[in-house]
Amino acid sequence: MRCDEAQFLLHALLDRELDAGHSSEVEVHLADCPRCTAQLHAYRDLRQMMLSAELRFVAPPRLRHRIDNALPTSRAPNRRTLLQGFALGAAASAIAASGMVVVIQRADWDQRILDEIISAHLRSLQVGHLTDVQTSDQHTVKPWFNGKLDAAPPVFDLATQGFTLLGGRLDYIDGRAIASIVYQRRAHVINLFIAPVAKPERTPGLVSERGFNIWRWTEQGLSFWAVSDINADELQEFGNRLEAAILSGKT
Questions:
Q1: 201: domain range?
Q2: Judgement on whether residues 238 and 147 belong to the same structural domain of the protein
Q3: In the β-sheet with 222-228, what is the strand arrangement from edge to edge?
């Protein structure tokens, strides 16, 4: 593991949010890297300072009086009206809260997947990690996945359009094995992660995270994440050309 990847995972390690495999990788790196070890100690010291600091602010009593005086006076509600108001408010709050929980959980899941996608991309750039099957022949790459995944991923040769097929490998995202098809644009590597999805999640979209661009979309029951350090326009071009190839069914 390199320093740039370890730096991204230090906060997660400190919060005990990494799985056993990633925790082990970071700890092995820390054992031989004084720079990252010092950074981890700095994060721990900062956390301790925040825990011990008095960060709570208590408003003075005069502020309450000013607010009370600014509010319009009205006839006090009777008990029945008050209870009805509480009941309606509680019901509305419950509905809003349930929707908010779903949104928050979804956002957390999306962010976690993006983090895992980027970590997998970084790991692949280490020597000997980029491909399990190294070839520019899509007819060799596609059947290589037979028996390793529930369904072989779509593989297309886009060399004439400026994206050279390098091969493929198995990777692991969200605790399951998925396919990664590897392309090259000049000196830049593009990892195309492909996994089954129950239903389309969103229209195609670009996300920028930690210095990388990710173009993601769903098509024919599959989720696609293309990640690279090439510029956003070229990555979107790659995604559009691949999507067109999938829709045409030409190999």
A1: 111-248
A2: yes
A3: 133-134, 164-173, 176-185, 188-196, 222-228, 212-219, 205-209
